[in-house]
Design brief:
single chain, 180 residues, alpha/beta, Rossmann fold, five-stranded parallel beta sheet, 6 helices
Length: 180
């Protein structure tokens, strides 16, 4: 059985790094993991965690979810290399803490462009092929902040609420095409 091709965003730290590491080090080599991040200068922790998997089951790629061009370029390269993407893990996210009135409009846009529009951009890029293949998984990493607002994190909470709404609305539609 061919290994599943997984693309994971936001792999320089946290959940993305851990997910990429776990899948890449799977003893049965069931996954070919494309661990992406917007700044490759931050790949050191992932490389250290996955030394033996590098170039075998783990491939680190630059991808900025807030850029249409970056998403298109990175995913086209993966499709060219692999022929398909079986699993998309939308994990990339940013958070800014503070009073809402102190948050600049550029900070608002940056937060939503990464946390919500990044999920939208990545999902839109893989859905057509997954639907035509009648197969695939899209996993959107959210937060409890997507269910319950918390003081000083209004922008983050709002962006994660949006991810929850998008995820809930897409799930029943995509299920009809074999995409989970």
């Amino acid at each position: 059985m061919d290994p599943k091709v997984a693309v994971i965003t936001g792999c320089s730290s946290g959940i993305g790094l851990a997910t990429a590491s776990i899948l890449a080090k799977d003893g049965e080599k069931r996954f070919r993991v494309y661990a992406t991040m917007r700044n490759l200068d931050k790949k050191g922790s992932l490389e250290s965690a996955c030394q033996n998997a590098l170039g075998d089951t783990l491939f680190i790629r630059e991808l900025d979810v807030s850029s249409d061009d970056s998403v298109e370029e990175a995913l086209n390269a993966i499709y060219e290399e692999e022929g398909r993407i079986d699993i998309l893990v939308n994990n990339a996210g940013i958070s800014h803490i503070g009073m809402l009135e102190t948050q600049t409009q550029s900070l608002v846009k940056e937060t939503f462009n990464t946390n919500f529009f990044g999920v939208l951009r990545m999902s839109k890029a893989v859905i057509p092929r997954m639907k035509s293949d009648h197969s695939g998984h899209i996993i959107n990493i959210s937060s409890t902040a997507g269910h319950t607002g918390m003081p000083f994190t209004g922008l983050y909470c709002a962006s994660k609420f949006a991810v929850e709404g998008l995820s809930e609305s897409l799930a029943p539609l995509l299920r009809k095409f074999g995409v989970k």
